[in-house]
Amino acid sequence: MRSFIIGLLGILFLCGFTSTLPTSKFQDNRDGVRYTAVTIGDKQVMTNNLQFQNEFSYCYDNLERYCKHFGKLYDFRTMVDPEGNIKNDICPKDWHIPTLEEWEYLISGMKPTITRGKHGERIYHVSENYAQLQFGGFRSHQGGFYFNMGKEGHYMTATATDDGWATIKVRRQGDGYNLTIIKDTDEDRAISCRCVQNK
Question: Is 90 exceeded by the pLDDT of residue 167?
């Protein structure tokens, strides 16, 4: 019952995500899933969370219906080979996991106002969710525990850091959304993925 209620809340929150930018559509030929994408600056970014399944992907609370609404959750192992080199085989052909630098470009294209958090981190407030980011929650790095669907979304970057992994967190704030760059995410945490089209 708890999972069902959380899922409904997440879907209701999702309805608030809109974008006035034109979108395009494409299909992932590996599994037939269709996606839309929006152009921000000179980059095309998916406006749906990735649903591609591999051995390091999870559905929130292990329920397939959440994958259909919010996409899969992936951990760091999804995008590195055994030697630790970045690979991009979870994204559709001609698409890739955005680096932190690419995410910063996309965020700047959403016309944010910037403030500082209590630990000095930058908080980017946007009034419109151009990329239609979702509140898909995350899977804990400590095992099969899931948190915060309907409250926040977490997104992969293809950038490792000295303290773990750089990721993007989004939460609703007032009449808009706060985006924060997290540079010490545990590599075992599983989060959402958006792909960017190759140039």
Answer: yes
